[in-house]
Amino acid sequence: MLKPLLTIFLITSFIQAPSDFDRTLSLEQLIEKLYSENAQERAIARQLLPFKNPMMVLPKIIPALGSDNYDIRGCAKNILFDLTNQMAKAPGKEKEGFVNALLGYFADTSLKEETREYILKALSFIMDDTTNPEILEKYLLDGIWRERVRVALVENNNVFSAKILCRSLNQLSDEDKVPILLGLFQMKEVPCIDDVAEFLDSSYMPLKVATTRVLANTGSILYAPKLFELCLSMSETEPLYQELWDAYIRLAEKSALNGGNWNYTMAMFKNVVEHCKIQEIVEAGITGLGRFGDETVFPVLEGVILDSEKERFHISALQAIRMLNTPAITQSLVDLCSKLPREKQLYLIPALIQRNDEKGKEIVNRMLKESGINGKRVFLHTFYENPSLLYIDYIPTVIESLEETEKQKLVECLWRLVAMHKEVEKSEETQMGRAYLYLFKLCPPEEREMVMEGIKRFPTYETIDVLLPELGKQDPKDLPFQLLFELYNVIPAENGEKRQQIYSVLREQLATIPMERIIGQIGGSKNIQQFYSLAGFVEKWNLLGPFQWNKDEPFGENYGFPTSITIEATYKYKDKEYIWKKDASVEGWGYVGLMGLCSQAGMDCEDICAFAYTKIEVPEDTTAFACIGSDDGFRLWVNQEEVAKKHVDRGMRVDEDKVELHLKKGENDILMQITQLKGGWNFCFRLTDSSGKPLIFDIKPL
């Protein structure tokens, strides 16, 4: 079994990679292989002959181009084209010599016609301004070879070829000029355009039509008046009527694309709309006005729409209005709506939406209410193409009527819309939030987590009402804390019932979700200050220190505390005076920083301590819990009674220690001592009730 497989592999490699053969084979040996009946031998020649000197290979393969053997002839043709492509990149003299050789063979009438055709094809790849045109010009005037030479020149498509075609015009009959002009029509550049224009006066109509095509392709409006005159002079029953108008509209389009005289180009489109009798060309003129025009063409398009005799052009004109990329026509659109029957007004929905204007929004809103399913589909189709935050509020109006495939398309559209708005203006935040809400309602479950991120960024007061039915919840308690928190901050005060509902749920979640996780979720919120009070953080403290501290006896010294505190007075301890730093606020994720005390005192932040004092008020006697985080240790007094202390070397973590407190109705003094070994220095302090919910209290000014 192995031997047959090895044989197949070797044969396959032999056929597929003839270039692996020794390239030292002589030219004569390779030519011999070219003429071989064996396909593998010809493949070697096909692969290796282009690596030999082209001027030596060319005369050897010319006979093969006329071989009666189809395979030999095809192989020789491919070698010829390879050599030609290779020589097209050669230095000037080498290339010129090769081209002259090709011209010589082409002029050799002893060769078969098929051979000469292959050579002419090769010439079309390589001839340029340095090529001697005499032979080509001669055969272009030859009735037998004219068409084949013309095709080769058109395929070459450079100025050299165009000049040869141009020079032949004066030596040919009107009938023979027509194919030459059709060749020039396909050229990038026509050097004899002024001479061509003179054929407009010819009495031979095919020549006149071919001329119009060449002129139209230039995009030069210099010849437009004469062309328009011909169009008007021709009866619509004449066979060439359409040809002339077609050339005229193409000239207008080419002029517009080339940046020609704009006013005259618009006039050409208007001429077509007003005078042409061929429907598709009139529609092209209407489209040209919409595609290239501005507000000045609106009256023309409006005139078409309001003309009952031009009913067949109404849709084209309405679509052209949609193309007008200018905000200046909004009021004109609004006025036009009032003049149209309801079924025609629907066609203006796309144009109004594209304007992205409040005036248009009002009209679209009315149409959607009055037009039923057709109006909704027109709206959606336009919204798919031009998603706009201005019209996001209309999505609920149309969602219910959508097929499943249409809903998927709308989901893609909404994703595009939110992706387009990397930067969102303050005035757009509500619409952006609603876009995410509708996306949440329509998107597949696996995309909802991603959508939720957008809902968190742009909450609206409708968020809770939209999400709850979709999540199948009776109340919002299972919604993410960060979403509820942002909602709480945007719901208007007058919607007190909903606000209180969310407030209650937030308090419940604060009792059950670890505080570190919550802070991690909302740390970047612009409403972080509101979170501190909601979560029960004591936000205002008065600081005193730093004091030298003995870490070996961490709480052996009281520094004169507890005592009645008056923060306005200087605090004296061991013949040194200290001043209270008033109203230090929490920062970051709820902590109070103490490092600034060291820099103010000019002390190193090692083996020291400081005190933090505040006064809170509660409405009744209550049992509460102090949730403390400290870097490093702490001692706590409530109403001058020590309730907890902890000596530890640690970084601060929120809620790391919980201490039960008994608070009396009214005011309560809270004093903290925070110790510092080295490194960072801060603390955080919040209060909860016995269930873990944030305690409701007031901070009293001191």
Gross morphology: elongated
CATH architecture of the domain at 533-699: Sandwich
CATH class of the domain at 533-699: Mainly Beta
Range of strand content: 5-15%
- The first-to-last residue Cα distance is 100 Å
- The number of E-state strands comes to 13
Describe the structure.
- The protein is of the alpha+beta class.
- The protein has a domain at 533-699: Sandwich (Jelly Rolls).
- It has 33 helices and 13 strands.
- The strands form three sheets. Strands 1, 4, 6, 8, 9, 11 and 13 form a seven-stranded antiparallel beta sheet that branches.
- Helix 19 runs parallel beside helix 22 and helix 26 packs antiparallel against helix 27.
- It is elongated and about 125 Å long.
- The model is unreliable at 1-21 (pLDDT under 50).
Explain the layout of strands and helices.
Layout: H1 2-16, H2 27-34, H3 39-48, H4 54-65, H5 70-87, H6 92-107, H7 113-126, H8 134-140, H9 146-156, H10 159-169, H11 174-185, H12 193-197, H13 205-218, H14 224-233, H15 241-257, H16 262-275, H17 279-292, H18 298-306, H19 314-323, H20 330-339, H21 342-345, H22 349-355, H23 358-385, H24 395-399, H25 404-420, H26 429-442, H27 448-457, H28 463-471, H29 481-490, H30 496-512, H31 515-522, H32 528-534, E1 540-548, E2 571-573, E3 576-578, E4 581-585, E5 592-593, H33 595-601, E6 608-618, E7 622-631, E8 634-638, E9 641-646, E10 657-663, E11 666-676, E12 682-689, E13 698-699
Antiparallel strand pairs: 1-4, 1-6, 2-3, 5-12, 6-11, 6-13, 7-10, 7-12, 8-9, 8-11
